[in-house]
Amino acid sequence: MNIVIAGAAETDHLGKLPHYSAIGLQLEAARNALADAGLTKDDVDGVAAVGMPGPVQVAHALGVTPAWLDGTGVGGSSFLFHVRHAVAAIRAGLCHTVLITHGESGRSHVGAGRFGLGADSLLGQFELPYGVFGPATTFTVTALRHMKETGLTHEQLAEVAVAQRRWAHLNPRAMMRDLITVDDVLASRMVAYPFHLLECCLVTDGGGALVVTSEERARALGVRKPLVHVLGTGESADSPIVSQMEDFTTSKAFRRSSEAAFAEAKIDHADVDHLMIYDAFAHVPIYGLEDMGFVGRGEAGAFIAEGHTSPGGRLPMNTNGGGLSYTHTGMYGMFAILESVRQLRGEAAAQVPDVELGVVLGNGGMFMSAATLVLANRRP
Q1: C-alpha span between 234 and 152 (Å, rounded)
Q2: 158 contacts 186 by C-beta, under 8 angstroms
Q3: Measured between alpha carbons, how far is 67 from 89 in angstroms, rounded to an integer?
Q4: What is the value of pTM for the model shown?
Q5: Of 357, 282, 355, which is closest to residue 322 (Cα–Cα)?
Q6: Which residue among 116, 132, 243, 308 is least enclosed by CB atoms within 10 Å?
Q7: Is the pLDDT of residue 116 over 80?
Q8: Which residue, among 355, 167, 347, 353, has the nearest Cα to 274 in the 3D structure?
């Protein structure tokens, strides 16, 4: 059974949206994705969402009584997990059409509860006592070790932000569009060594949604938009906290999830026309390129600096501008999937010519979890 993404859309606006709650963002995204597919809530019998509000509240607010639910919450990669699980559920006959939603008031914090961790938690025992707290400080552990062991330079790290701003410059919806240089990045405020401000993701409000179903059902329901086929999926996890990673310079979860997705899709690296790698911080795409096998160990920094991932390069990557320049609500993975869908449909703001096959790699937490999708605008 061929499984497809039949609808895909974001909220009307991204950025600072203090008049939206998280559930409001999810419902607007859901409405837009269903409209994109030409469907209604009555066509939906499966719902996936993460956090609060979760799938039960989303389904209730939409007026859907689902036959299948998924509330898997593993950070920013959760939505890629949801796609994988939806594919399996549809093939198993547990449901027919799954709506996957995301909405997050990451900047305005509308309705957000207070954040707290118990002293007996893993973070409370093994990281917080040493002054490590939050993504900016926890991710530095991996970045600095990678720089020490592979020779990755500050200038090469800055090139990631520069390359993605070139894509954002072409995208009217991107939060940050002005072109920047390596000097601009290195002159921006230091947040947590070695990360400067422009090497850290944005903090925004927004949301997005996907409609996943079988190709047969999509055609029977009269879906108008080009169908995006899910050729392969993979998921994995490394460590719940960064200090317990086996090797700070590589993500086992990146490798395992990508190997599974590539094997299921029966593709190799040369087949990939378009790549989306989660980029909460500038070093994450470097890990992705190396761990997925697009380049060798220690080669990703130079690969990006040479322009291979920029407009006109041989491996267009993060073509919406990524979490560094497009948007980042806290859990970015939904937006990476949506950009891949746009590229495969030929609808992207910064459209890459002749895209037939795209790959999306999601990261959750500080290299905690990962999932990979292989998508195409053709049947397998």
Answers
A1: 28
A2: yes
A3: 10
A4: 0.97
A5: 282
A6: 116
A7: no
A8: 355
φ, ψ of residue 236 in degrees (nearest 5)? -165, 175
pLDDT > 80? residue 41: yes
Kindly give the pairing relationship between strand 68-70 and strand 357-364. unpaired
Residue 194 forms part of a structural domain: no
Residue 85 included in any domain: yes
What is the pLDDT confidence band of residue 124, given thresholds at 50, 70 and 90?
Answer: confident
Query: Residue 285 CA to chain centroid, in angstroms?
Result: 11
Integer Cα distance of 279 and 299 in angstroms: 18
Confidence at residue 122, expressed as pLDDT on a 0 to 100 scale: 84
CATH of the domain at 13: 3.40.47.10
For the chain, the residue count is: 380
In a domain, 306, yes or no: yes
* Contacting residues for 122 by C-beta, under 8 A, at least 6 apart: 240, 241, 244
Range of the domain at 318: 3-111+203-376
Torsion angle of alpha carbons 72, 320, 177, 22, nearest 10°?
Answer: -30
Q: 127-168 pLDDT, tens per residue? A: 888 888 788 888 999 999 999 999 999 999 999 999 999 999
The single residue listed with the structure tokens 């047969």 is 216
**Domain assignment present for 117:** no
Asked whether the CA dihedral 266, 270, 276, 280 is positive or negative, the reply is positive
Please state the domain count of the chain. 1
Q: pLDDT confidence of 180, banded at 50, 70, 90?
A: very high
Residue range 52-92, pLDDT digits in tens: 789 999 999 999 999 999 999 999 999 999 999 999 999 99
Query: Are 26 and 207 spatial neighbours (Cβ–Cβ below 8 Å)?
Result: yes
